């Protein structure tokens, strides 16, 4: 979906898809009809929107289309990309698209990444999932690294706050971690000295605020392993030091964090939009 716009991209999925998984339908919700479509030989892995572009991601190729007339503008060959990883800037003054390539950012393959809205910073995680690294898009330098943990984990989502002062990471460990970033925000004075005596190229940050999502609205003794195996969470920053966490099981959390002392987040709101178990049951006859 393009922000709050009425335009959506629909791609078939699941065991019984209503639409072919190798086709993208551009849906106008105001008109309640399809206004365009793209068909491919291979399955579509992801679709990204910005106000002037539509990006369609296949496993080995990315297609860039003009938003207004759906004209093909560019084709980009990529490495194997089964997750459909793709980042896109949304600032009209910058045009940045990020996809898997041959540049080495981690010791193992990239599993997840996100761009800032202006496309100038890139946060990445590997298949190992222990480190999150932040890169400067303009010159490719790495200027910060944060450690999520020492155990291997699958990273579900990475998000950056609009001010680029905070980074949130969700994983299959059933937790969400928030890290403070050292990124220089436009309009701020540069720091007088490096933190912890480290080189200007990278700052290593170990402290974090964490939320054990399995302990919210459920029995922690039984739901922890269940959520690790089944539930995926994605995170986004809200206003006034809050984080919104959405689970694939239909759960929604809004939590606040202390931007000075850190520690455990405080649960402000919990809503369950879907009852997965009930939905999967056959209706009584």
Shape: globular
Output the helix-strand order: EEEEEEEEEEEEEEEEEEHEEEEH
Derived from helix and strand composition plus strand pairing, the structural class reads mainly beta
Kindly report the CATH topology of the domain at 1-88: Lipocalin
Subcellular location: Preautophagosomal structure membrane
InterPro entries: PROPPIN (IPR048720), WD40/YVTN_repeat-like_dom_sf (IPR015943), WD40_repeat_dom_sf (IPR036322), WD40_rpt (IPR001680)
Keywords: Repeat, WD repeat
Family: Belongs to the WD repeat PROPPIN family.
Task: Give the structure's gist in a few sentences.
With 285 residues, the chain is mainly β. It has a domain at 1-88: Lipocalin.
List the helices and strands and how they pair.
Layout lengths: L6 E5 L11 E6 L4 E7 L6 E5 L2 E5 L3 E6 L5 E6 L9 E2 L8 E2 L11 E6 L5 E6 L4 E6 L5 E6 L7 E6 L5 E6 L3 E6 L22 E3 L3 E4 L7 H10 L3 E5 L4 E6 L3 E6 L9 E7 L3 H5 L5
Parallel strand pairs: 13-17
Antiparallel strand pairs: 1-2, 2-3, 4-5, 5-6, 6-7, 8-9, 10-11, 11-12, 12-13, 14-15, 15-16, 16-18, 19-20, 20-21, 21-22
Structural summary, described in words:
Belongs to the WD repeat PROPPIN family. It is found in: Preautophagosomal structure membrane. This protein has about 280 residues and is mainly beta. It has two helices and 22 strands. The protein has helices at about 220-230, 275-280; strands at about 5-10, 25-30, 35-40, 45-50, 55, 60-65, 70-75, 85-90, 95-100, 110-115, 120-125, 130-135, 140-145, 155-160, 165-170, 175-180, 205, 210, 235, 240-245, 250-255, 265-270. The chain starts with 6 loop residues before the first strand and ends in a 5-residue tail after the last helix.
């Amino acid at each position: 979906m393009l922000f709050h716009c009425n335009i959506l991209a629909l791609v078939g999925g699941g065991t019984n898809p209503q639409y072919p998984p190798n086709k993208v339908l551009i849906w106008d919700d105001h008109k309640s009809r399809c206004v365009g479509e793209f068909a491919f030989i291979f399955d579509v892995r992801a679709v990204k929107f910005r106000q002037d572009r539509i990006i369609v991601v296949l496993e080995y190729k990315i297609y860039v289309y003009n938003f207004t007339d759906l004209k093909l503008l560019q084709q980009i060959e990529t490495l194997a990309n089964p997750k459909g990883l793709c980042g896109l800037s949304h600032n009209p003054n910058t045009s940045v698209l990020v996809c898997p390539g041959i540049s080495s950012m981690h010791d193992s393959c990239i599993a997840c990444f996100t761009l800032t809205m202006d496309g100038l910073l890139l946060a990445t995680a590997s298949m190992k999932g222990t480190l999150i690294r932040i890169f400067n898009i303009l010159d490719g330098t790495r200027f910060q690294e944060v450690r999520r943990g020492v155990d291997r984990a699958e990273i579900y989502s990475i998000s950056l706050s609009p001010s680029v002062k905070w980074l949130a990471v969700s994983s299959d460990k059933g937790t969400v971690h928030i890290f403070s970033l050292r990124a220089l925000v436009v309009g701020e004075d540069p720091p007088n000295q490096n933190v912890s005596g480290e080189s200007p190229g990278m700052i290593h940050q170990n402290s974090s605020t964490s939320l054990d999502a399995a302990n919210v609205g459920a029995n922690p003794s039984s739901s922890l392993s269940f959520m690790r195996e089944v539930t995926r969470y994605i995170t986004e920053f809200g206003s006034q030091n809050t984080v919104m966490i959405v689970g694939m099981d239909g759960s929604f959390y809004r939590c606040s964090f202390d931007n000075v002392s850190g520690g455990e987040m405080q649960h402000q709101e919990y809503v369950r939009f879907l009852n997965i178990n009930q939905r999967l049951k056959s209706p009584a006859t």
